[in-house]
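Checklist before submission:
- one chain only
- standard amino acids only
- sequence pasted in full

Submission:
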Amino acid sequence: MSEDPGPAPQAMILEPCRLQALADELGDSTPALRFLSTYLSMLPERILSISSGLCEHDVNASMDAILSLKISSAMVGALDTEDQCRAIERMIREDHFDSAVQAFPALQNSTDRCLAAGPQLLGKAREALCSRSRSPF
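Returned file contents:
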């Protein structure tokens, strides 16, 4: 019998090295944490924009929305979401809107996992970034 692995670990939702790199670039963890918080709060609106653009077969609206989510996901370390965006971006560029619409639920599932884990993600990120900023190296 195989055991249920349970919920995905937080590292599967958010790669902490990416957020740490952002904090290092900015020279402070506070703006990086604020960016993560904003990223999470904007996910529903971004998903709605992507969905609308895809359903209307609007290349410009779809690309704007998918690129915005892809780039911000990369910055916070939401690797699965970034990968899903990259795949849909490719489909849009190749004018395969039907495929992009079919791929959309996987992107929505990925962002739903981020949203569901949001408070824990923020807490773990705050803990990791703040403890690192206090370390002597």
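Reviewer check: Confidence is low (pLDDT under 50) at residues 1-11.
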